[in-house]
Amino acid sequence: MGEFSGARTDAPIEQRLARLEDMEAIQRLKERYASYCDNGYDADGFVTLFVEDSVWESNAFGVYHGRDEIHGFISGIKDEIVWATHFMICPAITIAPDGQSATGRWYLLELATMTGAEGSDTRDSVVMTANYEDTFVKENGEWKIKKVKVHFHHVSNLDKGWAKEQFRSR
Description:
Layout lengths: L12 H26 L4 H5 L2 E9 L3 E4 H12 L3 E15 L5 E16 L2 E21 L2 E16 L13
Parallel strand pairs: 1-6
Antiparallel strand pairs: 1-2, 3-4, 4-5, 5-6
């Protein structure tokens, strides 16, 4: 089933209900993704959300293939992003007709404390915005992340703002 415009389809109620349950499960999966980030970048928990051959990709933080590389990235990023809160908003989830894969889009507004550009002893207040384009698959009946693609619009120190500093120094 593709986009839902609010009009009821001729699909059986069981199929429509399954689609809604899948959409809810994916939203909860994305919530756990944000929670693992916002609670100290828990790499061990974070990678449980992904299938083995997954990809995490962004224009600001690089590309990581498989759970091991993703684990390494998350383990290291907590030294750079010492506090964060991810606001994942406006979900748009499409479940494939077979109910075994899906795509999802979210907007991100993230507030963070990051190590300063001058050195790890300083701290900067940072604001980030991005778009997520994710792919999900069912593995043993449970939704998992196959691919995360994050396009950051900016990663900016709050005191300078995104108009003067689209991407802060790292």
